[in-house]
Every structure is written in C-alpha cells, then in structure tokens.
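Student:
Attend to each token:
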Amino acid sequence: MRFELTVKALAPDLKVIAPWREWDIKSREDAIDYAEAHQIPLRITRETNYSKDKNLWHLSHEGLDLEDPANAPDYEKILEMGVSPQAAPNEPSFVTIGFERGIPVALDGEKLDGVTLISRLNELGGKNGIGILDLVENRLVGMKSRGVYETPGGAILYHAHDALETICLDKETAHYKQSVALKYADLVYNGQWYTPLREALDAFVDATQSTVTGEVELMLYKGNITNRGLTSPYSLYDVDMASFGESEYNHADAAGFINLFGLPVEIAARQRRLLEQ
C-alpha cells in the first residue's frame, strides 16, 4: 500500500507487479516453498517464520504465536535490537541529548549526524531494555493486527523531545500539536506522505520547533526512561512564578479570574436549582 502510493506520487506511469496478489503465493508457507524450490537462501525456518520489517528506526515482529493477543511474547526468542527489561543490566545508563530547533544533534555534548546518533541510541537503549512495545493496531482496511515492536533509539528520542517541549512550548500550542500528531500519524500510516495535507502539517510543526532548542538528560534503567534535567535558552518555565515560596505572583489576582472562568458553571447550577424547586 505505502510503496504503491509512493510510486503513484513519484512515477505514476510505472506498472506495479505484486507477486503476492498476482501469483499463487497465498501465505508465508507458500512463500517459503517457492524460495526452497528456487534455491533462494532464507534466514528463517518454518518455526521462526515471523513477519519482520527492519530499518534504522525499528524492527517489527508479527505472525505465528503473536497472532493471538492472549499469548505472551517470548522476548528471549524474538528480540534482536536489544534485551528484555528483566535481562537488562542492574546499573542504569545516563545520556544527554542536545536539540536544535527540534532536531537531535548531539549526544553527551558530541555533535553527530542523524544516522550515527540514532545508531548509538539504538545500542544504548537496546542493552537497557528500552522501546519494546506489544500492541494491537488498526489497519487501514479495518482489521486489527497484533505485533511486537523494537524501537530503542526512537523511544529515547521521542521521550527526550517531548520532555523538552514541555518547557519550550506554550500550553495552547502544545495541546493543539497533540491533535495534529494523531492526524499526521494516520497520514503516514496510510501511505499518504505525498499529499498537500502532510506538507501543510509539516509547516505547522516546523513553526512550533523554532524554540525547541536545549538539552535533555535521561536515565535508562530496565525498560524505563526517567528525566534528570531539562535546559533551554527559550524555556518558558519561570522559577520565580512557579515557586511555592514568596514570588512576584499575586495570588489575590486569582479571585476575579475564578469568578469569570466559573461563571458558566455557576449559572448552570442556579438553573438546575430552579428546575428542582
């Protein structure tokens, strides 16, 4: 689906030949039979015949015992990018990630290109049991599908970026961006990358990232990611205003705000009381 929509967008005159749809291959077992008959080497057996997709960002596992959501995944058997939280070291790892305009650019102060940065986080996260997700997803056609995903570096980056945004984005922008993220995910999942809407949403997200610059220090321990510190030259966090001690914030100002903000609630309550009489 995604590959073919991309072909339609970039080379609409190309004809797509999809053996799975056009030949007599109806299952993964048929595909193995075909490979064996034509002496095509395989890295799997019929017993380890999980459907897997791997790239720099993640590795997915589907099929066999995972098709039944009642079955617990055998992580010791299927994991490739890391270990289970139970098998992770008893000592935590620490990492500081630097961002510029929302883009990760450094690890522990060392400037890195994107591929190297993600590769290192994959290694660091994998050994600490980070980024293992067992989920049931809703496919485009409506059916549900269960899979186990390994995304060690991606999980760390997502957590760090989200944490940095908490001090760099105002409330309304942060909340609206969450709704945009859901729609953006649908577009990508459904193969609609080359669409005007995706480009328009990119423009919005790019604007929100203009101040998302700073560093995030994290602790990684047995599948958990814990914040240790956030810093940014664009931080909206005012320590004086947020303090529980004496500050410039005048608590008496809240009285009028509460009266105005709560006016609809008060009116509705008065109306209910009248109806009950």
Residues 169 and 236 are 7 Å apart (CA to CA). DSSP finds eleven helices and nine strands in the chain. The first strand starts at residue 51 and ends at 54.
